[in-house]
Amino acid sequence: MIKFGYIKNDSIFGKIDSINKMFWLIGIAVLSYFITEPVLQLILFFCIVLNGLILAKLPPKNFFSAFTIFLIFGFIMFLMQIVFYSGEESLIYFQVGYLKIGHEGFRNGINLCLRVFVVGSSALTYIITTEPRRMIYDMVARAGIPYRFAFAFYAAFRYIPIMEVEAINIRNAHIVRGTLEIEKGLKGRLRILKCLAVPLIVSGLRKAKMSAIAMESRAFGAYPKRTLTYTYTVPFIGYCINISIWIIALSYLIYLIVNGLWQFS
Amino acid sequence: MSEYEGSVYLRDFCFAFPDSETPFLKNIDISINKGEFVIITGPSSSGKSTLALCLVGIYPKVLGGSTSGTIKVGGLNVHKVETEDISTKAGIVFQDPDSQFCNLFVDEEVAFGPENLLVKATEISDRVNKYLKFVNLPKYNNKKIAELSGGQKQRVAIASVLAMEPEILILDQPTANLDPSGKEDIYETLYKLNQETGLTLILIEHQIDELIKYVDKLIIMEDGKVIESGVPRDIFRHKSQQLEQDYGLWVPEICRLSFAIEETGFEFDRFPITVQEFVEQKEILFPCLSSTKTIEKKENYAKKTALEIKDLSFGYSSQKKLLQDLSLSINKGSIIAVMGENGSGKTTLSMNIIGLLKSQSGTIILDSQDITDQKVSHRCRKIGYVFQYPDHQFITNSVAEEIAYGLKQTSLSQQQIDDIVKDTLKTVELEGLEERHPLTLGMGEKRRLSIATMIVQRPQILILDEPSAGLDYKNCKHMMDIILKMCKEGVTIIMITHTTYLVAKYADAVILLDKGQKVFDGKPEDLFNNLEAIKTKAIEKPEILKVFDCINSKGKIMDQCLVADDLIEALNRR
Amino acid sequence: MEEEMKKKKKWLSSVDLLMIAVIAAIGAVLSSLVINPIVRALNIASPFVSMWPGALHLFAVIMGGLIVRKPGATMFTALLNGLLQMLFGNPSGALCILYGFGNGLGSEIAFSSARYRPKVWITMLASGCGTVTAFFIDLIYWFSDFTFGFKVLYLVDSFFAGSIVCGLISWGVFRALERAGVVNRK
Ligand SMILES: Nc1ncnc2c1ncn2[C@@H]1O[C@H](COP(=O)(O)OP(=O)(O)OP(=O)(O)O)[C@@H](O)[C@H]1O
Ligand SMILES: Nc1ncnc2c1ncn2[C@@H]1O[C@H](COP(=O)(O)OP(=O)(O)OP(=O)(O)O)[C@@H](O)[C@H]1O
Ligand SMILES: [Mg+2]
Ligand SMILES: [Mg+2]
Q1: For a tag site, which of B161, B494, B499, C73 has the least CB within 10 Å?
Q2: ipTM for the complex?
């Protein structure tokens, strides 16, 4: 079900620690937010794609396979922007009663559609190049998150395939009981959903309790620190990529403010 | 009294669950020496798991509750020290490996304990290699846990506890879902550990036939109390019948047989508890056994075909077929056992029969009607299916509603439904529990309830996926009684199981699968007598049959039977 | 009994943490498999409609708060849920974490002001607040150029969507869990 998992990769971008990459990711989302110019947004998008294909050496098939989802999501954003845009329109293409489609709304729509692409593809780069166990390591060793919490995240990761199998089993069991025939209509549908969710959560909570016991019996949480068996080095370029995106974002913001182009709504 | 030097020492130990006034574990006295191999057994809900958790300090330190009395593990007073200190003395492994892992890779999992204890990184990697080798999984370091088989997962779980280098290893039903060869492997590994490293082993199990040869001490629990503790030979010599009938334990077959023989007036010098010991005394036993005559098992089913499968093929991916051109035919009113190693495709086959998986080719004929293209909802009016985990099948909030649920579709009146529910409750002996929430029932009760939900739909065929896993003898017998009753009424039973005893005692025919291929289809006697020729590791020979093999090795002396019950019956009838 | 034991005092125990992990995992699967496709389909009709099923994104967060009932549990579930959703390839990318933070903030405040008592109205309030704070992020990041009326309507709608859809459903599931004997309502 997890379509976009980590793919083993020894590119430069793959070597960067996940914390720097996370800041890079957030930096891109912020920069993309400042950009109102579709052309600039497009350039940003191209930079991310190039980064993904060259610096991160992502297999193009995996990289582009997610783009259909972005396209759908982006198109919805585009439609909403042209319909609901409230600013002044310099040129109106089309008007039916209250609904008007104008130049600014259109530009805004394109911009936001591209923003979906920017945000989505950068996240995709992150997902494909980051190994979950590296993430845990970085959270504990570099971000100073207490390991108990970092581990909860890792545990969640482990539970997902288990819960998936469990959900399929439960659904099968219900099919055999004939629920689909008995429960009809919206109320029935909701009941089916409840019948699915409750055993799933029950078995999930039982499993959680069981693993917690197993972990505690193996001295989990006994000391504030634990041994880290593997070590990673952070390449210098990691900091560069992280910091440069923030410098670009902030300087662009300053440029906007100085030129009076920035209005916070 | 001087300081006790042993591994585990409990005096007058009591334990009450949080929010409970009365103690659940009552006045437990146990002492276990270093290097002993101990089994704790007892009926369901007798407190075995609870005791194990007390030993490692989970109760009361992590999960709450209150205790009294003395409890010492590895020389530490469990009351006074923290769980992490106990964890270097005693480690615990649970039944379901999937829920006790919390890492993605094998090496991480094994390193997990030592990492928590701040062991140096270099030493950790040494330990990982050492213990993975010990459990026969070298070179598995970088494998994903999710991709291992059940037996391998169980081994990783053991290795990950061993990596903390405890003096005592506690295992709570570690082999419940494993096939006999996987079970045997684990037991042998454990025995090797016990012998080579002097590790104290405490094993919680229901069925102890294969284990009894290793054991130094047996502890039997019932209702939160230790009722017996000592050398297995003595316990079974004096209490076999009582343990089986009053407490519902799985008494090993040979012990039952030996006990029954002594009941007839015969006396052993040394009460045999293993096949080996039993046949050693065969010279003196002959006069006793040779005059018995076992009755032929009657075929109590009609020779009509209930289900026929022709050339069924199925694969989870289109490249590789799991089931290949499988054909079988099942007689009406018979009990069919489906056996095979873990991952041989038993569950897959049954899912194909009920239609939850769509077979890629082949036909399924039910009662001379082709149902290959029927939808699941149609098929399951005629085929009942009891899943391995009964929890999954429950939909409503009470036992009574649960049974009535399947009747909603039918045109029965409320009065009729109530009557049927009442009858069914009686059949499965769940009266008095009508208002309980299904998920709060015990395992045996859940299993019976899930069978009850299928009974009311009056299926022609009932499929049970590993119905005996984790059940004690009483509950298992209870369940089989219900099944036999259904059989008499003409229902055909297909039972997927790893339990040799069930097959030997109840099955009319066995289908053996190996990597999706049918390698045997016939009577259980024929299967068990020809295990060498079939070359399978998935099946253990029944203990009693091993006895007969020895007795009859120089020419046939007496008719064989597969389970102790039949032989005991013959003895008594004499 | 004589030797009454105190549980080891930790802000969130291992049991709590793993329960949160399971709930967040279930929630993330629910969001990316079931809710997102529905929301995306309804979005074409109107964001005011799609918001109603969309409020169910908060399901896991509310369940986390109801089951664990300790300060910060709701927030932690929400953040974990957000991170997982991002890793599943949600097109909102890094924003998922921000949404998670928003969800957590609103519900946590509501829950904590009622001292984590499991009551139906508190659940509804927490769901409403959590949804509003998350959808506030939507307004800033995606809909900043929309009319003021739209924005007010959007937030009001999201509050009701959250408290009715997510609040009532989470409460129903919580009650069912209680009857099944896995959680208790003290
Ligand atoms: N936290 C708890 N509070 C109250 N009762 C509990 C709690 N945990 C377990 N029990 C009850 O304690 C009893 C003993 O459970 P335990 O798991 O120790 O049995 P067991 O001997 O291991 O059984 P099985 O063979 O089925 O594993 C059960 O009846 C169970 O319902
Ligand atoms: N959903 C699935 N997708 C892909 N492969 C699967 C799936 N389910 C099972 N398999 C594979 O098919 C094979 C047979 O599985 P199956 O569950 O039928 O075995 P089984 O005989 O029931 O084993 P067990 O005794 O462990 O229950 C296994 O190798 C398993 O890994
Ligand atoms: Mg138990
Ligand atoms: Mg199976």
Answers
A1: B499
A2: 0.91
